[in-house]
Amino acid sequence: MHHIEGIRMRTTLLSLFLLLVAGSSTTAQDHAKIQSDFPAEEFIERRARVMDAIGEDAIALVQGGAAAPGFLVFRQTNEFYYLTGIEVPHSYLLMDGRSRRSLLFLPRRDARKERGEGRMLSAEDVDQAKAASGVDDVFAIDQIGRQLYGFVLRPPSPTLYTFMSPAEGRAQSRDENLIGHASHVSDPWDGRASREGAFVRKLRERYPQFPIADLTPIVDTMRLHKSPRELELVRRASELAGMGIMEAMRSTKPGLHEYQLDAAAYYIYRINGAQGEGYRSITATGTNAYFGHYYRNDAELKDGELILMDHAPDYGYYTSDIARMWPVNGVFSPDQRKLYTFIVRYSEALLSRLRPGVTPDQVLDGAAEEMAPVIEELEFTNPLHEQAAQEALSFRGHLSHPVGLAVHDVGRYRGRPFETGLVFALDPMLWVHEERLYVRMEDVVAITADGVENFTDFMPRTVDEIEAFMREEGALQLVPPNPGTPPPPPRR
């Protein structure tokens, strides 16, 4: 049962309450927020690699995220966090390839804002900011121009590197941000420039002496392979994702709605320290699952349908990407059982071949060869299902995309052998287009020195394991949704 018994969360309402009380602080948080997942030395090492890549005749200027509008909570961009660990809006980082120095620029102290929101890391907190990020010095952001002046005083000026691709914020990935930007520029009544584009334009207007280059490919390459501390964060995000999906799985009953399963999973994430979701939930029943990025999550669960859930938390800026499917009524039909069993066997065939030194094509080709007789073994009675399984063997997307700071993380790993520290989504899938049916099972795996680690091997996988697991009671049975009846009046 893949260690299911060892991680199951069978709690009563009282124990959940005690858990929340025990994890809460009894004193006010009168200090600036400083992350504790990475030591300053790791950020120093990352910046050193950047300076190695840009060379001695270059500098890099990185813009952090803007303050969140309204009552939204600020979350630093992945790019700025990766290089500094600093979670302050309107921050900047300057890396000098010649002197090998890194300078951090922060807003000045805003006493009025701090009276309302608590202490914030500011330009005046030089020692604290240096200790947290490992930078060589800290200035206010109005000093950036003075620092850049020195680089253009005596030509030729160094090349100035900065990010030109859209920064990744809360629940964002580069690919989706680019799609969103395409929508903006295609709208004649919008047509706004990206924040990165506006920043580059300002640099060119104010300092035409600088040749400007894109920092994005350099840092993307660095982010592809994870350090041990990064792996630990993805591992924990994956564990919470699995626990959340399992809570949704055991809570499933006909008549509930997709968003209620979404809420059950999200609850598990938040009480265990996640700062939100890594991407919007795909909780899709019936033919809704046919749409790969379905997000409305408002349909009623009906007897006889399969439900797909694809969701993960944002845990310390890192996420996962996990999907499972299960029957709404708790029992797979004969056809559903065969299709999902095919996907489970395909996942195992892929997993068994993952290790350093082999290429994605070798893994896909070997797994497809192993799975060909499995189709005969399963004895599909529906010819459309058999055809879908055959077509799945030639599909090249089962080793899907990198995972890390973003669910669709940056960097490219196809076309060359796997290397230690690579984290990606293993996602065998098939489509029965005539029935608007999509069947898949997704895990997040890391290439290790001697093979592969599946971060979610504790979850129920086979149809028998899922059916047994769904006989348990879930959170939505312990605390049922309120159908709309007004609560009783308070006692006098």
Describe the 3D structure.
This protein is an alpha+beta fold and 492 residues long. The protein folds into two domains: 40-223, Creatinase/prolidase N-terminal domain (Creatine Amidinohydrolase, Chain A, domain 1, 3-Layer(aba) Sandwich), CATH 3.40.350.10; 228-478, Creatine Amidinohydrolase (Alpha-Beta Complex), CATH 3.90.230. Helix content is 39%, strand content 14%. The protein is built from 17 helices and 15 strands. It has helices at residues 4-7, 13-23, 40-54, 78-84, 111-117, 126-133, 144-152, 174-186, 195-206, 216-224, 228-251, 258-271, 334-351, 360-378, 383-392, 463-469, 475-478, and strands spanning 58-63, 92-96, 101-106, 137-140, 159-162, 212-214, 282-285, 306-310, 323-327, 399-402, 423-426, 429-432, 437-440, 443-448, 451-454. It has a six-stranded mixed sheet with strand order 4-3-2-1-5-6, sandwiched between helices. Strands 10-11-14-15 form a four-stranded antiparallel sheet. Strands 7-8-9 form a three-stranded antiparallel sheet. A hairpin with a 4-residue loop joins strand 2 (92-96) and strand 3 (101-106). Helix 3 packs across helix 6 and helix 11 crosses helix 12. The longest helix has 24 residues, at 228-251. The protein is globular and about 80 Å long. The termini are far apart.
Short description:
By secondary structure, the chain is of the alpha+beta class.
CATH superfamily heading of the largest domain: Creatinase/methionine aminopeptidase superfamily
Distance between the termini: 51 Å
| Structural class based on helices, strands and sheet pairing | alpha+beta
Number of domains: 2
CATH class of the largest domain: Alpha Beta
Task: Report the count of strand segments.
Answer: 15
Average pLDDT: 93
Radius of gyration from CA coordinates: 25 Å
Helix content: 25-40%
Strand order of the largest sheet: 4-3-2-1-5-6
Shape label = globular
Largest beta sheet, briefly?
A: 6 strands, mixed
CATH architecture of the largest domain: Alpha-Beta Complex
Strand content of the residues, in percent?
5-15%
Oligomer: single chain
Output the number of helix runs. 17
CATH topology of the largest domain: Creatine Amidinohydrolase
Unreliable spans: 6-28
